[in-house]
Amino acid sequence: MSAIRALAEELAARSDSDLRSLLSARPDLSLPPVPDFAALAARASTRASLQRALENLTEPQLQVLEAVLIAAEDTGGTGVDAATLGALLGGAEHPVLEPFLAQLTARALLQAPPVLQDGEPQDGEPNGRAPAGPSYVPVGALAEALGPYPAGLGRPLETLVRVLPGFGGQLVEAVDRVRSLGVALGPTPDPEAAARELSGAVGRPADWKLLLTAAPTGTTELLERLAGAPVGVVPAAARAGYRPGHAAAPVDWLLGHGLLAPLDVAHVELPRSVGRAVRGHRVAASLQAAPPDPGLRPVRPAVRDNAAHSALAETLRLVDALLSPGGPTPVATLRSGGVGVREVKRLTEALQVEPAGTPWLLELAAGAGLLGLDVDDSRWKPTGTAAAAAGDREALWLALAGGWLDLDRAPAMVGTKSPDGATINALAAEASRPDAPRVRRRVLDAAVELTAEHDGAAAAGVDAPSLTARLTWHQPRLRRRFERLVPGILAEAESLGLFGGGALTPIGELVQQDRLPEAAAAVREALPVPVSHFVVQADLTAVAPGYLDPAVARELLLLAAPEGRGPATTYRFSPASLRPALDAGQDAGSILAFLTRHSATELPQALSYLVEDTAARYGALRVGSAGSYLRTEDDAAVEALLADPRAAALGVVKLAPTVVAARAGADELTALLRDLGYTPAPEHPAASGGAPPPAPAPPSTASQAPSQALPAGPARTRRGPWSITEEEIAAQVDSLRAGARQAPDQAAGPECETLLGLETLRTAIRQRSPVRLGTADSQGNAVRQVLVPLSVSGGRVRVFDPVRQVEKVVSVHRVMDVEIIEGTSDG
Amino acid sequence: MADGPLIVQSDKTLLLEVDHPQADEARHAIAPFAELERAPEHVHSYRLTPLGLWNARAAGLDAEQVLDTLLTYSRFPVPHSLLIDIEDTMSRYGRLRLEKDTQHGLVLRTTDYPVLEEVLHARKIAPLLGPRIDGETVVVHSSQRGQLKQLLLKLGWPAEDLAGYVDGTPHPIALTEDGWSLRPYQKLAADSFFSGGSGVVVLPCGAGKTIVGAAAMATSQTTTLILVTNTVSARQWKDELLKRTSLTESDIGEYSGALKEVRPVTIATYQVLTTRRGGLYPHLELLDNNDWGLIVYDEVHLLPAPIFKMTADLQARRRLGLTATLVREDGREGEVFSLIGPKRYDAPWKDIESQGYIAPADCVEVRVDLPRDERVAYAMAEDGDKYRLCATSDTKSGVVEKLAAAHKGEQLLVIGQYLDQLDDLGERLNAPVIKGDTSVKERQRLFAAFRSGEISTLVVSKVANFSIDLPEASVAIQVSGSFGSRQEEAQRLGRLLRPKADGRAARFYTVVARDTLDQDFAAKRQRFLAEQGYAYRILDAAGLAG
User: Fold this and answer.
1) Are B222 and B171 in contact, with CB atoms under 8 Å apart?
2) Measuring CA to CA, how many Å separate B126 from each of B93, B104, B132?
3) Residues paired with B511 in a beta bridge
4) Are residues B116 and B213 in the same domain?
5) Residue ranges of chain B with per-residue pLDDT less than 70
6) B346 and B316, same structural domain?
7) What are phi and psi of A369, to 5 degrees?
8) Within a domain: residue B356?
9) Greatest C-alpha distance within chain A
10) Same domain, B527 and B424
11) Positive or negative torsion for Cα A798, A801, A805, A808
12) Does pLDDT of A712 surpass 50?
């Protein structure tokens, strides 16, 4: 019977609560809902779903699962009992293993009790032991989902003989050499037998010892290196080849005795049986039932808070500087996407930050929706949200922290090389990591977990290695992802004040508990109170001793240029720095009044002199724009013009007793003067007939809110794309039960047909039996052939045509049906 | 950290609010490791530099104490990266030590094996080293001691020099404290220097650096070589030593362009030592052929580059550097650190002023309007002539006369750059002019007359910038300068800062032509003086009483 059918039956037999726990542990099984148990079983056996389930296994769960898979391959697909598993996992006791086996069964990754197939002859147990307790088999495509190197062990010799051309012949010779060392081996007429006999010998401790004693020195070290990662780089150039009777290097000796398989010119692989022997005839030295001890260093709370508070104040200051109206925005993008190096450099100089800090600030502000991409001119501009949060540090932090938690990008990847060798730019698509929000969430969870375990008055310093180790214990399949993302995430969290000096802060804890508003309140507590005064000095500087009230700061920025970076800002006055204020219509009196009002000390004479001197000399030349002008010797005419009510509409202003300028064009002014009874002459012949010179364009409204280019949040948040509610689970269980009542024993639906076909193919591959394969050719004609399938992977089946004696490849999607040919298999 | 006087910025500056009740305490706490950069009236700013931190390590401070000081006095949280950076930087000093080994002579020893490896693999350093003794020790060619220290500093691994000094030829020297006594800070400076071995003492102009030198000589009791900037300065050292110590005329020799005397205490000018003839330094033997027990460098911040080179070979002798500032216009602070030694004493300038040892100063900038024709001439002049044109305007002379009249009866100094202008002023004010071609004898005569009050007004060119002593000059008028150099400004002000008998404030006028380059330079000068904490006012020439 098919394994999928068996799984379907087993699922149907589960209680409702067991089903519920399965669906909540593997939510993708009912997203979207499945019609019946057969479909559920089929979906549970797909590679994608299995991989998702594997990602959520803890280290011990994965160890047990991998051990079951390896042991099951030993026994040719029959069940594995707990005692066998215990021996493979460093002697783990039954009570220790039991819960893990139960969890794996509950998640439909293992099946128990074993589903013995009809009439299958039971080969004797390899160790001659009777099965104790229930025995477990892995579900369908698990081997494929776990990859070719489960538990970090290489492929079995039997497989290697099949897939490596030429290795079979070498192995037969190698086995003869092994035999000559005194190892008792059965007859080895063909490569398969050689592989079987050699595997058996390696698996027997006494024979293994005999082999090792014959090996040259250095062999054990080499084997131990390869035991963790089975594929090693040994260039063919470094292999001298094994010549009996001559001293051989360890690599050559191992190759010559079939204990190492040459993959290609550069790589070798340690066969599974050898790897297990090196590990002490086990799969793993021990079962990692509990997470490893992180060995955290203590961090004084004062140090932690000092670091966190200074970092978050600095981040807020910089984001504020980035978004402020006089700041360096908008930010131009490259045609290829993202913000270019030159633009980043410009921002770095404007903000006076460490070069690495600029991309992070951009990513952070964009992620929080404070910077938005204006699609019209492809530039990033402050959004309405930014304007709303300006000056309110609590609101700003809230926006930043919330945005960061949901940010589906890895800002730390900016500046690194992408696989194609190009450097990744800030805000470019290459830094997108859809899994980042989940990893971020896990980092916070793990930090809380580690901090809680740490006892003592000091806080726990949770650095990237300890966090990665803990996260990897929880989800070993995601190790690479954690290693790549965690250091960056930690640095980002530090700059938001969630960590300080390497320890989780109270703010970080609140964020982990999703209590963002409370965290923001804690941030407000931590930030120094804004000051509204500054100290003015004779070197023409004003120093704000702390965070200057935004309203005061805005006004001061019109007068003086800021310098330095840190909690306090120094503003330097110069004739040039005073100009914006004078342009804005201020005069010496109002400037000095403002300075006196906010200065904590008496204004130095040198500064008053500078302000008065600059203001007095400002405007010696005056510039304006006008559409037309009138000059005359007759000031009465000017007065008459100004007295007319229509003059105001034309924007007429008197510049001097005999000179008037108007906003309106010369034609309109001429018409009005004619109406008043004068005969004005055009000053330029062109001015009378032609169109008036174009009126000055209205000042561009730089504050126009750019369109909000950021998409609305998806219904399932980025933090948990596979989250599922209790109601959805209940509805799914109900519909499954209803479907089961209607068609109790029908495995139907396209979803499971393909899988059934694939499963049959896999069975045939395992049994090396020919199949009758129905395929559709490129013209759509049905073709039926008798073929021997060799392997299935990546949507392709490699088959051997016994009639034409050739190998070929068939796409899985062309396969219509598969039938194992009777008599050669038990189907 | 509720309300400290210190604000630690992430750009490695420290802002100290001087009106804060804890300000003094904090100032003393940070002085050993932070360099005072600006000291305007309310908020002083200090800078943390690797050299400053290493100076602190040399003075026995560790990173823990520095961090603790920052955290104690800081008003706001201190950037964590800064703390880590400080710890890193400070831990680099002293991992390599130069020591005297009884068997192998001079050796470089480390407590940190990889550092030694790094150093041994540096291409420039390898040739300076001899055979390796063990994992942690390597022999150093003793002639390369100075160069090695220089290169190690460049690599970022400053070595602690514990190899000691040769004794030098003994010579009895004692202070004769009749009618005067060593001020407390001078004694402290001399003691700190001597216990540290070699190094630099930083004291403001007028605080009595010569006496610190004399005190060091009295402690050393050996033959001494004193290197000074010029001949006038050499004579002053000689006079001062005769007055303050038991040394007699026959003990002190002058080694300058004019005289070549080598005596137990020899005063040489930088210039004569750096004279080259045929690619060689003919006077180098003065350094090499005598067994000096102490070498004193006056005005270290002006030390010419060849002297550094010679100093590199003098590492076995005690070296004392005297200066008003560690800031060098050419940025060679690192060489001072590695070759002369770390800072051994630094008196906060304000402290000395408040103790009454130096006079407060009042700086006034007087702006004159150029007449129309001069403005046009200025506008049309070549760039190279512009400064001269505006600096030597005739209108300035009128202003100087007015100012001189206003300060009638006070000791007045007029300082300028351009000789024509100075001659003209000399005539108008009826005062003698001292310039480059005035003989040393004549200069000394005029200075003596000025000192005694015989002459009340003196016009001087830039020859007077360095190391002359005009105790009673209470008013200075600067009419032109060499493009706003910070050094020059400090020196000129130094002329005035010697304490006045009646405790009056010194007055320092600068006459500036409005809307010209002169004013741009004046802006720089203003910033510098205000940053030094001097009161600074600006007046219009038209507003002067007349």
Assistant:
1) yes
2) 20, 18, 11
3) B366
4) no
5) 1-2, 329, 348-351, 356-360, 463-472, 482-504, 545-546
6) yes
7) 75, 15
8) no
9) 131
10) yes
11) negative
12) no
The CA-based angle A531-A533-A535, given to 5 degrees, is: 125
Distance CA A261, CA A232 (A): 10
Give the separation between CA B354 and CA B535, rounded to whole angstroms: 15
Return phi, psi of residue B213, to 5°.
-60, -45
Contact of B354 with B347, CB cutoff 8 Å: no
Cα B325 to Cα B493: distance, rounded to the nearest angstrom:
14
- Please check the confidence at residue A123 and state whether its pLDDT lies above 60: no
Residue A685 in this model has a pLDDT that exceeds 60:
no
Give the number of other CB atoms < 10 A from CB of residue A656: 10
**Do residues B369 and B491 both lie within one domain?**
yes
For residue A612, what is the nearest residue in chain B, using CA coordinates? B538
Q: Are B219 and B194 in contact (CB under 8 A)?
A: yes
Pair B483, B538 in one domain: yes
DSSP 8-class letter at B134: E
The Cα B165–Cα B72 span in angstroms is 39
Mutation target vs A (from B43, B367, B525, B538; most A CBs, 10 A cutoff): B43
Out of B351, B386, B406, pick the residue that ends a domain: B351
**Best of A310, A348, A573, A602 to mutate (most B CBs within 10 Å, chain B):** A310
CA proximity to A574, closest of A540, A550, A547: A540
Q: Which residue of B has its CA nearest to A527?
A: B76
The answer to whether the beta carbons of residues B172 and B464 sit under 8 Å apart is no
**What single DSSP character describes residue B222?**
B
Domain final position from B66, B92, B118 = B92
B-chain residues near A605 (CB < 8 A): 536-538
- Is residue B542 less than 8 Å (CB to CB) from chain A? no
Could you give the CA distance from residue B169 to residue A359 in angstroms, rounded to a whole number? 64
Q: Where in chain A is the domain with CATH 2.30.30.100?
A: 750-820
CATH number of the A750-820 domain = 2.30.30.100
B74 contacts B86 by C-beta, under 8 angstroms: no
Contacts of A541 in chain B (CB under 8 A): 40
Nearest-Å Rg of the Cα atoms of chain A is 39
Range(s) of the domain holding residue B190: 184-351
For residue A336, give the DSSP letter.
T
Q: What are the φ/ψ torsions at residue A714 (nearest 5 degrees)?
A: -70, 165
Set of chain A residues whose Cβ sits within 8 Å of the Cβ of B531 = 539
Per residue in A283-312, pLDDT (tens digit) is 888 888 888 888 788 888 888 888 899 898
Of A263, A287, A285, the closest CA to residue A276 belongs to A285
Under the phi-then-psi rule, with left for phi > 0, alpha for psi from -120 to 50, and beta for the rest, what region is B341? Answer: left
Q: Does B483 touch chain A (CB under 8 A)?
A: no
CATH number, domain at B382? 3.40.50.300
- In chain B, which among 16-35 make CB contacts under 8 A with chain A? 17, 19
Query: Do B504 and B539 belong to one domain?
Result: yes
- Given CB atoms, is B9 within the 8 Å cutoff of chain A? yes
Query: Which one of A302, A501, A567 has the shortest CB-CB distance to B9?
Result: A567
E strand or H helix at A85: helix A82-88
Same-domain check for residues B380 and B515:
yes
Kindly state whether A528 is in contact with chain B, defined as any CB-CB distance less than 8 angstroms: yes
pLDDT in tens, A532-575: 899 998 888 999 988 888 888 888 988 998 888 888 889 999 98
**pLDDT, tens only, B7-63:** 999 888 999 998 889 988 888 888 888 888 888 888 888 889 888 898 888 888 889
Count of CB atoms situated within 10 Å of the CB of A349: 12
Q: DSSP label at A548?
A: B
State whether B23 and B55 are in the same domain.
Answer: yes
Q: How many domains does chain B have?
A: 4
In angstroms, how far is CA B319 from the centroid of its own chain? 15
Cα distance between residue A394 and residue A816, in whole Å: 62
